[in-house]
Design goal:
single chain, 2 domains, alpha+beta, elongated, five-stranded mixed beta sheet, seven-stranded mixed beta barrel, Rossmann fold, Immunoglobulin-like
């Protein structure tokens, strides 16, 4: 039984991490939806509303856009709306029947086709734009008879590692014909190493958003949150903290930023509970181009004990 304990701990750790992230996303979506529903409730003649897949500003669909549409649809069902929400499977059928897709809904020339969606009074379209650590969301409710915007709302969603992964994944396209198979020399399989971009030292949660190399410096951007508790954290920007590249070379932290506290050496900052704080760790004297941080070891102090922050397999941008 003792051998199962670490496995159970890992399971529950992952469960609570995912639960916290989902709760935060649900709250962020609820704020946007409640604003939109309040405005739509003041408009007459809206009985049935559908939500289409979200897209980038240029109309490009992604897995994230499809996921957000599902989440917003569920949130609108639970909101205090004076109208009914059409099942998204039904909407997809109606769009296909009318010869429309998510990109076409943003095209003003599609107004005539919109009017052919039977049983739909208004459709909610959404766009998303990445800005640093957040995703800006803009949703609009279109009247299908006139294609006039009846209500709109804006908001932001934090770009967690899971959100970023969905954001960068396109829906892809099915090829028009089956490609001809050509015999090629076998190649060794590509081994994908899953990054460990989050670290928890309760109540602290560390999330690595990205690492980027510029000359001899590697800068890693993080989001640090103290969940449910006010806390003071100190971090050592010296040889107590380092990164190790794919060849086993060590590079030490030379500077840091915790919110608006920055400098070299040891620095402390007060973290208010449940407030994500933007942070940066800078590693210097990197004398070669690196594409992967095999391990990041950062030394901290929470006024009671040392905090040894460990992240692994973090890709480096250039």
């Amino acid at each position: 039984m003792q051998k199962l304990t670490p496995i159970l701990c890992f399971f529950f750790f992952g469960f609570f991490m995912n639960a916290n992230a989902q709760d935060a996303l649900d709250k962020e979506i609820s704020v946007i939806i409640n604003d939109l529903v309040t405005k739509m409730n003041t408009k007459g003649g809206i009985k049935n509303v559908a939500i289409s897949d979200f897209t980038k500003l240029d109309g490009t669909p992604t897995e994230l856009g499809k996921y957000l549409a599902e989440q917003f649809s569920d949130a609108m069902v639970n909101a205090n709306a004076n109208f009914s929400i059409i099942d998204r499977a039904r909407l997809n059928f109606l769009l296909k029947e009318a010869g429309l897709d998510a990109r076409g809904l943003l095209d003003p020339s599609s107004a005539a086709k919109l009017g052919k969606l039977k049983g739909v009074d208004a459709i909610v379209v959404g766009t998303m734009t990445s800005e640093g650590e957040v995703l800006r969301i803009n949703v609009r409710a279109l009247n299908l008879e006139s294609a006039v915007v009846q209500a709109s709302a804006k908001g932001i969603i934090r770009r967690t590692p899971a959100i970023i992964a969905l954001e960068e994944k396109g829906l892809g396209e099915v090829p028009a014909s089956t490609p001809v198979k050509v015999a090629v020399d076998p190649k060794p399989p590509v081994i994908t190493i899953k990054p460990e971009a989050t670290f928890e030292h309760p109540p602290l949660l560390f999330e690595c958003l990205e690492c980027k190399q510029s000359g001899a410096l590697v800068t890693c951007k993080l989001r640090i949150t103290s969940n449910g508790k006010d806390l003071k954290l100190g971090v050592y920007a010296n040889k107590e903290s380092k990164i190790i590249d794919g060849e086993g070379n060590d590079y030490f932290m030379s500077a840091l930023r915790l919110g608006n506290v920055s400098g070299q050496g040891y620095h402390e900052k007060d973290f208010a509970r449940d407030v994500p704080t933007s942070s940066e760790f800078v590693f210097s004297d990197v004398n070669s181009k690196i594409n992967l941080i095999s391990k990041m070891d950062v030394r901290g102090w929470d006024q009671k004990t040392y905090v040894n922050i460990t992240l692994r397999n973090i890709p480096v941008k250039h």
